[in-house]
Amino acid sequence: MIRLKPRRIRVVCWASAIALLVVFSLVATSLTGATGEGYGTFQRGDQVAMVGLGVLGALGILLFTRPRVEADARGVRVRNILGSYELPWEVVRGVRFDRGAPWASLELHDDDLLPMVALQAADKETAVDGVRALRRLHQAHLTGLGGTPAR
Fold this sequence. Notes:
This protein is of the alpha+beta class. The chain has two domains: 2-65; 68-145, Roll (PH-domain like), CATH 2.30.29. The chain has helices spanning 8-30, 44-62, 125-145; strands at 2-4, 68-71, 75-80, 83-88, 92-96, 103-108, 113-120. The longest helix is centred in the N-terminal third of the chain and has 23 residues, at 8-30. The chain is elongated. The model has no long low-confidence stretch (mean pLDDT 91).
């Protein structure tokens, strides 16, 4: 069983989410008194709403930590930012990580490409090792079927 997650983007996202939450909380504490020249004043609800917006923004950033790839002898499960796929090895033609591509992808027999956002070029050797491990599993499946690998 192989489990792969992006590394660098997870650190960046968590740091950004925490920073965003801190900034919105600081802004919320400064919302007191009059709103300007008019009759309006900031209320407790305005402060709570500002913190709520910070929480929503942080959760939106943390969506980018969601990608994951899991694979075993039966197939591969890909979870991207907004979608999940479970594919048997029979529908996979190959595992690609083209030069200059931001992430790896699965090439399917119907000529579709399924991006695997969890294997990002920013992770360098970790992503390359993950692609190699997926290729070994795919090759083992092909060998078990008595087939030759498709290039």
